[in-house]
């Protein structure tokens, strides 16, 4: 879950000041009137009707699209010139980084009197990448340069480089030949004299001949292809998918009661290591601090020379033409003119996520789903798209609106109204001239509904958003000093159904923004399957955990570690062992002194006798797999280490009852191995910040 993000406006931004100024202008009875509203649409309309909520800082600049977008031909030229100096010194990596900065800064459309900085920067970077043997990426840049208006008189050189890249990558001879022929045609537009043109034509024909020779190398270039990184493999869900909740394993069923709400239960025994969920979010957003270093669409770290900018702003970057095209065809077309503005507002990432939950679909999507959201009976027998089903499930997550106080309602509704205004400015409801904006006018039916959904999103995200994480390592295979970092936030309507326990029952990791959930303890049939919302019994005392959960999630925790007041990990001793009763139905703890000489112990719950000698022998047998897992982890073999950790945990879980220090330490190793199999960034890459 998301920790410490229940505020709707952060400290460093104008929204907090705006919120306070509006509060001071409220009239007697306004908050009571808001509290009396029956639903989110009524709340939004009421707050929108207050005349003083429309006096928002910088909104006029946002409406006029006059906020700076960071694009500058002068800045791009400066960075490109710096890159050229490093290129001359054969420092190609540094040149690539500077050319990437130029690409990010360059306007997508050059004025008639200006040099096409974007095209020139792409061409320059392709040359540096060529010298780094990064031929596949060089080809992408060549295509981008040609599509961005690269000067006709220079195209012959660019297409010559394209042919050499194709040859280096072992592409078909006819493709190389066609490219060489294109270069020969383009040289006629160059400023070369006749002698040099003729020499260029001979060189191209020689290249065609060389391409027909198997394993022919390009002279003076050490050729190797650089494969694009493949997306990490998503594991199969153990025991197949749940029919009603396909992101869950069939081993999970959902139950509901008045105290716990909806929650996951083991429908059949769950073993340590079982993959119980692979959940794609309905929507996710990246942490703005990662905009410069990661693909805005797929969350991959941007490798050297991989950056493709948004054509209209310098806020975000992409790893490929595909990612950029998908983003520009959807949510980023709406968000692009707003990102600088909402950054200035200082809104939290959950507010940004609420906006994204709307921006990924057109208004018609939400108008179509309106009759279905709160009426499950109407959903039966209706053919719904997977996105529609996922959105409906998302909207059914808890909002705790019945216990929200009037001050909190005003705060969250004011934010929803602000986000609705942002959508209008971004063109979500259609393009409007700046002079035609009038926020004081009554809302249309479509705007009322979309605004009410924004309000609903803000409330449910407060309790149901999950953090998307990434593991940062010094170098591949080295876990020393590795730490997890906040990569983004998402709403996962399936995994959000799992309730909290201060003893984590699962481990989460991410591939991109896809969440993978594994069991790190066994669950018997009928037992509640829990995740952890932040406070863990090994690190915080019961009073602190319960206070934190009450403040953040508005519930009183009654999990086993809280009920039994389990000790912190530093307070656990080896004086006693909590053996598990061998009766398969009972499985309750047998608390035994470590120095006992009695082999037979009666279970205090089921009264059956247990021979603990066999359990002690099995306990000793776990040491080998634990040590082997540690060795594999030190060697950087995280897949093998995870397998050993899971085997050790399965054995320990069968012998002992929590809390148990060795089991917790093994869980931590397994958690780190899982993280290493998900999103990773290596520390040296941080020097490539753009």
Kindly describe this structure.
- With 690 residues, the protein is α+β, with helices and mostly antiparallel strands.
- It contains 25 helices and 17 strands.
- The strands form six sheets. The chain has a four-stranded mixed beta sheet, with no helix packed on it. Strands 4-8-7-17 form a four-stranded mixed beta sheet. A three-stranded antiparallel beta sheet has the order 3-11-10, with helices on one face.
- A hairpin with a 3-residue loop joins β1 and β2 (261-266).
- The longest helix has 23 residues, at 612-634.
Uncertain runs with pLDDT below 50, 5 residues or more?
Answer: 217-230, 685-690
Q: How do the strands of the widest beta sheet line up side by side?
A: 1-2-12-9
Largest sheet, in brief, is:
4 strands, mixed
Q: What is the terminal-to-terminal distance?
A: 30 Å
Average per-residue pLDDT, rounded, comes to 90
Going by helix content, strand content and strand pairing, the class is alpha+beta
Helix content: 40-55%
What integer value in Å does the Rg equal?
30 Å
Please report which band the strand proportion falls in: under 5%, 5-15%, 15-25%, 25-35%, 35-45% or over 45%.
5-15%
Number of helices: 25
- Indicate the multimeric state: single chain
Shape: globular
Number of strands: 17
